[in-house]
Structure formats: C-alpha cells, structure tokens
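Objective 1.3, modelling of assemblies. Example input:
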Amino acid sequence: MSEREFEPYLNLLTRFLRLNAGQREEIRRELRAHLEEAIEDAIARGVPRDEAIREALDDFGDAAELAARFRSVGQQKRWIMKGTLAAACVSLAALGVNFLWPSAPPRVSAFSWQAGRAQAEPRGGEGRGSEASRGDRAAMGERDAGRRGETAEDARIRAALRETVQDVEFEEQPLSEVLSQLAAALKVNVHVRWDSLEELGVARDTLVSVHLRQVSVERVLRLVLEGLAERVDYEVDEGILVVASRERIRREMVTRVYDVRDLIGSGGGAERQVRGVPGGTRDAIRADFQRFALARVAWVQSNDADAAMVPQSVEEDDAGDGLLELIYAVVEPDEWEVNGGRGQARIYQGTLAVRQTATVQRRLEEFLRDLRAARVGTGR
Amino acid sequence: MGFSRDLLRGSLDLVVLAELSCGERYGYQILSALRARSGGRIDLKAGTLYPILHKLERDGCVRSRWDESAGRDRKWYGLTEKGRGRLAENTREWLDYARCVRGMLGGEGAAVEGAV
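Predicted structure (tokens):
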C-alpha cells in the first residue's frame, strides 16, 4: 500500500510540532506505523480504501490541534520577568521624556543638534532629503504598516527614527532635556516609564553626554539609553515612542490589527496542486487545509496528467477560525489566553485584531509573512 | 454506549498505565485493548492516546523501544518503576474519589446500584 496518501497530513503535523528534529521524526514514524496498521485492518474488515484512510486520519484529528496537544502536555512555563523588572525600568528612565512637556527651544550653548537642521536634511546630504521622497517612503510605510499591524503614525515614527542626523552633541545635559529635544526633532510623542526608571536610579536630571555624527536617530537613541543603564529599549505603539526597560516592554500588551483578507475568504488567489491523491484522502486533507486557512486549494480530479483542476473556496468563518487555531498552535502557544496566557485574538471581516506583547506581535507578523510566502502559484 | 469525554478526561493516564501493567504494548494495540476490555465503552481516539504516551514517557513513567521484527515498525511501551508507583497512587486516589462521590449520592446512588 502506498504511504503517500497520509504523508501530507504527517508533513503538516511535523511542521507544527515544536520539538527538535529527532523527536519530530520519531513521532512521525510512530504515527505512520499506526496509520498503516489501522488502514490495513479496516480494509481487511471490508472498508473501502479511501474511507479507511479518511477514518484513520479522523482518528487523529486536526493536525494543528494534535501538535498543540503534544506540546501542552508537560510543558514548563518559561516566563520569568518579575525578577528582572527592576533592571528593566532603569533603562527606560534614561530615554523617556514625558510627551506632555511643551517643546522647549533648543539650548544652543549645550548641544549642537539643531532640530531645524535634522528636518531639512533627512538623508544627511545636501538636497537629497526632498519632501517628495519622504512622502513616497511614508506611503510605502503605510501600506506595509497595515499588513504589519501598525498604524500609519507608527510607520511614520519608525521612518523618522531611520533618518540620519548630521551631528548630535549633548554635553552633560539632563536626560529629560535630551528626550525633549528628540521628541521635538522627530515630531514624535515620547513617553517614559518614570517609575521603572526611578527604581533603577535614573531620574529626569541624570546627565547625558554624547557626541555623534552621521548616524541614524535610532542609533543615537540606543546609544544614549545604553549609556545610562543596561537593557533599555524602546517600542513604537499606537503613535507613541515608549521608552522602557526591555523586560517592561516585553511585558506590555499592545494592540495591533492585521489585514488577513488574503489569507481567508473566498474567490481568486492562490491555488495549490495536489497530485495523485484519491478522493477520500482529498476530503480528509481538504478538511485539514480548510481549517488551517491555507488558501484555496485545487484538487486533481483523477490521476491523469491533464486532469481538471477544481478551485476550492473556503468559507470565511471557518477559515477565520482555522487561521486563529493555526496561530494559537504555532505562534508562541503559551502566550494566548486559550492556552493559559494573556493574549487575545479575534477575526472580524477579514481583519485580525490581536492584543499581545510586542515580541509576540513581531513573531506573528513573521508568521503571517511566511504563510503568505508559502502559497504556491498565487498570480498576485 | 461509550462513556462521555468529560468522565474519561480525569482518568486517561490511569487507564493507559493500567493497560500497560498487563505487559508491553504499542499504541494501536492499546486502543484495541482498551476497547475490548471495556466492552467498547472506553474508545479513545489515536489523537488522544499518543500525546498521553509521550507525556508519560517524558515523566519517566514509561519507556519505549522500537521493534522492526514481525514485518512491522512498532514502538512498544512498558511501565517503569516510577510508572508502577504512579499507577498505584492514581488507583488509590481514584478509588477514594469514587467512594467519596458514591457516598454523596446517598439514596440515589444506592437505588441505581440496586437496579444494575
């Protein structure tokens, strides 16, 4: 008997198992042996082959759920956090300037970073930083931002951070002043977690000295932060540049929305060929794929080389559920409320809304990108 | 008629360990044996059993070995000392629990039992 019928299922399962290669192969081997025996017994009982295969696969169920079950038994919680929170806060202190501060005029005597100059020469060269190209970058940033789950404002802030500054110099300037300058120069709201900073012994009047040329704003930011204390970090969320310790940022929940219409819903788009798959297994695998919202699938009607292809559309609701289950099973499973964590996700009319830490959001973003890239022959 | 999933959920480890106490078994065999010994009322799905076996192995309650004789590739599971201990402990706890629940059922429980 050919093993090929259930290999796609095993492939899918293996892909979702978050174990090392040896363990994954071992499980695959064991389940394959079980499937072969179960199918043979069923056929011996008089069950038609296709039905036997389908029943045997049904006995295992959803590949993503199965993989999640292999994970959930006996996994230890990874989260530490609490012990390191104090250390994290200090970092923040260094960088945070309360965005409610009025934009103070630059103190010419103390530093040479001129806010006006930074704006006029964004690319660090005479005349090269034109408003037009800035607009293009902004537009592109916005489109990608929608797919990345950020607001247009977040995208603008990130773009601003990437701008190059000619010359930045702070000589024994209070931290709050440095951040205020930054906020004004970038036209960005900057918010500092002062409580976290104070725990680390960093305050508004902690002095900063730095002298840099031809570097991105982001680099300046990092260097200033790191110069004050270890593990300072920043995050862009909902139009605000938040400065905090790495742990504090990791802990904070942010809300992002992702446009996932291309990953769920019917009509047009990606098709995947599955050759030489008999009807019964087609149904079993199709049920799996539908649940995982792996785009529209084309099935070969027969084993003929020039067989017709049947595009299979996916019900949006089912596909939405499928995508969520896929995410819960594959993207940092422990961090979702359904698995005992704190994160939430919902799909509404082709939009995926997620409340999660910034780290998990980034993983999710990468995963969605991988999912899109994995689709074959999209013609998009 | 098979027992409801809710009822079974708390005792899956227990029945699997109990089955293994009769000797080495491979996965497919465990499912058949459980069905046979319970008159079809304990009908586990393969997707339920294998994660349990893997957890038990990770916990050190069972150990496994591959055997390719008999023309088949099979992974056999057997109880370890720790597994025997776990089985005994779980059995005690479960019987204790059953006694306790039966006690709470009072008159009802007695009436149903009498009818069986």
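The longest helix of chain A spans residues 21-44.
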